[in-house]
Amino acid sequence: MTTKILVSDPLDAEGLEILRNSGFPVDEVSGLTEDELCEKIGDYDALIIRSGTKVTKKVIDAGTKLRVIGRAGVGVDNIDVPYATSKGILVMNTPSANILSAAEHSCAMLLAVARNIPFAHESMHKGEWKRSKYTGVELNGKVLGIIGVGRVGGEVAKRMKAFNMTMIGYDPFLPKEVADSLGVRLTTLDEVISTADFMTIHTPLLPETRNMISMPQFKMMKPNARIANVARGGIVNEDDLYTALKEKIIAGAAFDVWCNEPLSEEEKKLLELDNLVTTPHLGASTVEAQERVAIEVAEHAVMFLKDGIVSNAINAPRGTLDAETEPYMPLVKGMGKMIKQIVGNNPLNKLEISYCGNLAKKQTKLLTVTTVIGYLEGVIGSANLINALPVAKSKGIEIFESSNDIAKDYASYVDIKFTYNGITRSLKGTVIGGTPRILSIDEYATEVALADRMIILRYKDTPGVIGGVGVALGEAGINIAHMSVGRAAGKATMFLTVDQKVPEDVQKAIASKVPEVEEINYIELEQ
């Protein structure tokens, strides 16, 4: 079927050209309602949006072919990311393309509210000349509080340093040395709020940041405090903002972002205030930023659709594979499938994956996710890089990843412990000459190439077992391609690769004819 792309918000011509040159059919339809988008989306593999389109659960359910949602911009609060993830849909954004534009707009908003520029401008256009009414304040020597000293906040700090401001910041995720290099002293949120003369917000809208600034925080601020928000609507409680400005609890504010865009009738009361500078979400609205976000989202969406390359993703594992780790992908996926077939219908409780030897120095996140995909394919039918970890978590599976520089007898190997019904078992595997090989199961050492059809038998280590198994398979017309045996403490494990499927009645025949056999697992990797 033809891969198709829908662009549902206006996109810069440079980005559209990249999409059209991809060879995929591209349709541009802006201004769709939720119901109209639901009617169309079922035909498309990719949806490219800006902030106007709301990608709800209803839209995602209607997008039965949808593989990727590309957001030309940073914020993805208009996308139901958890639900898209559960459906295996990649969500990508353009995290760096509009940083400079947003930072410059933040600086402009701080200056505008400090010097009453919009109000003086409006007064002059009415034919007035009221210099004293619009007396402002200097930034020089004042304290600037930056809430979220990340990419945009850091660029704001670089620019506002030129105004000779003392800069303090709140960012629990930023290393102190990075803040120090920007001239920002990291401190608590409460100190930023109570100390700053000017504040600027640069955090994402998350459950923990929604209404981060509300009446208790406004009452902590200096009466001369001014606050700018070019991040996301909802971080500041708008009702409390209205009260704080109207009652002069703080001196002023400058806002580019709102809970509802366009403003709701209730929000329009904010426009009556004479100490609130407003713009209609212009943080990224520069010619340069519009071009950059369009190009970036188009390039990365096409890379994913054409070659499966995941980049700029907010719901996919980070990491890359190199020439040494890539051959381990089929190994770990096969090991995941083996674990499911050994566990059977028992719920898996825990996966502990250790990368040993040279692998310990590599990026292995994609290998871990691929192991989980292998297991889940036998549980839910399909899984991918996007939904594997969330689905595993929803099923109560704990996943742990570790590394160990030491790999006895091999340059590298993967050691997976899996727990179910209070039982912990293990598989080890490696790649030799490009061929995935199983090195052991539980305490039984073996070395056998991973194959589409395998039998694992655990039995009492007594004479005649190998022959008895061979006879039972031979009578069923099943050819043994390879055999390896591991022995430990009076028990043994036989690992066979076979050329034909092994039906359940043949497995029962083996158990009947060879009573020493205590456990049989038939493994089929290509089902």
Strand and helix layout:
Blueprint: E1 5-7, H1 13-20, E2 26-28, H2 34-41, E3 46-49, H3 57-62, E4 68-71, H4 81-86, E5 90-92, H5 99-115, H6 117-125, E6 143-147, H7 151-160, E7 166-170, H8 176-182, E8 184-186, H9 189-195, E9 198-201, H10 215-220, E10 226-229, H11 238-246, E11 252-255, E12 276-278, H12 287-307, H13 328-343, E13 348-357, H14 365-377, H15 388-394, E14 398-404, E15 412-420, E16 423-432, E17 435-441, E18 444-449, E19 453-460, H16 465-475, E20 480-488, E21 491-498, H17 504-513, E22 517-524
Parallel strand pairs: 1-2, 1-3, 3-4, 4-5, 6-7, 6-9, 7-8, 9-10, 10-11, 11-12, 13-14
Antiparallel strand pairs: 13-15, 15-16, 16-17, 17-18, 19-21, 19-22, 20-21
Helix pairs in contact: 1-12, 5-7, 13-14, 14-15, 16-17
Descriptive notes:
- Helices cover 32% and strands 24% of the residues.
- It is of the alpha/beta class.
- It starts with a strand and ends with a strand.
- Strand 4, helix 4 and strand 5 form a beta-alpha-beta unit.
